[in-house]
Specification:
With 313 residues, this protein is of the alpha/beta class. 43% of the residues lie in helices and 12% in strands. The protein has 12 helices and 7 strands. A 7-stranded parallel sheet has the order 1-2-3-4-5-6-7.
């Protein structure tokens, strides 16, 4: 998910050549899928990972030795009938967001993807805001809707190993299909949370090169790849990821964005997508005052109109 989630730090402005390099490195490492962007109705050639225009998909489809290509769709942002064209453009997986637990809104996209012969994941967002019992119900609903894999996304970067184990364990017990986990690194726990999820029965994890991604970043691809090689004898390779320099500028942008705000948002279980109120408090009063204010008042409201997707991963 280097291209899609990492795109939040360069305004989804990867060039096609950069995307090709990243996809090539991921494929050479033996990682089975590269998530290459959002599928949206409005094509933006200068921001290819924000909309996956046809020419961008065609270029990545022709990368030698590439992994499977995956796109993410948020219900309502792309016409359902666009799903049918994806196999002819090299895409083999569609990841459907289930914001707010709205499985019904996601079902037409799942049905269209399955009808096109594509692998389908359904991604439950903000699982830190849900208890294990409600997660189990939602996972079962996603499986019934036709998902091949159901992902739990720690969108707020707020989970710790104990809460990951509870939620993933409940999901695995309820689900007839595999369960995946999407970590964020606000609290420096993405790696231990991901390995905890695997120990609890998850069989898929998301990661990005150098952990680039919004919020506090994501699980670092090179770390989980090395772990799986050393600890589990996985048939993966670290060198292609370590040698690729395509993401360096975006890594610097993530570092420059600052870590303190993401740590606080993770501790307070605040989703950065709609946290205008949180940002206003930090700008006005500073981090210390914001911690005190939000500890007393609770989570700030999310803004569903946020351009980055109010209920995203």
């Amino acid at each position: 998910m280097t291209l899609r989630d990492g795109g939040y730090f360069n305004d989804h402005g990867w060039t096609t050549r950069e995307a090709e390099s990243i996809v090539r490195a991921v494929g050479a490492a033996g990682v089975p899928y590269a998530e290459i962007g959002y599928l949206r109705h409005r094509h933006e050639p200068s921001r290819p990972t924000a909309s996956c225009p046809p020419a961008y998909l065609d270029a990545l489809a022709h990368v030698a030795g590439r992994p499977g290509l995956a796109v993410m769709v948020r219900p309502g942002e792309a016409p359902v009938d666009r799903i049918a064209e994806l196999p002819d453009r090299g895409v083999s997986m569609v990841r459907v967001l289930v914001p707010g637990g709205s499985v019904e809104a996601a079902e037409p996209y799942v049905a269209a993807a399955r009808g096109a012969g594509l692998d389908v994941t359904m991604n439950l967002t903000r699982v830190s805001e849900r208890d294990p019992e409600s997660i189990a119900v939602a996972v079962k609903d996603c499986a019934d809707a036709g998902a091949h894999i159901v992902y739990l996304a720690d969108s707020n970067g707020s989970l710790d190993p104990g809460s990951v184990s509870e939620r993933v364990g409940a999901a695995v017990a309820a689900s007839p299909v595999p369960v995946g986990f999407h970590a964020h690194d606000n609290l420096g726990l993405a790696f231990v949370n991901a390995t905890t999820a695997l120990a609890a029965g998850a069989t898929a994890v998301d990661a990005s090169i150098a952990g680039i991604g919004k919020g506090g970043g994501n699980l670092r691809l090179e770390v989980i790849v090395a772990h799986l090689i050393v600890r589990h004898g996985a048939e993966l390779r670290l060198d292609p990821i370590a040698a690729d320099r395509t993401t360096l500028a975006t890594q610097l942008r993530m570092i420059a964005d600052g870590a303190a705000k993401t740590v606080v948002s993770g501790l307070l279980d605040v989703n950065l997508d709609g946290s205008a109120h949180f940002s206003d408090l930090v700008a006005t009063d500073g981090l210390d005052a914001t911690i005190l204010a939000l500890t007393g008042r609770g989570r700030p409201p999310s803004d569903p109109t946020d351009d980055n997707g109010g209920a995203d991963e």
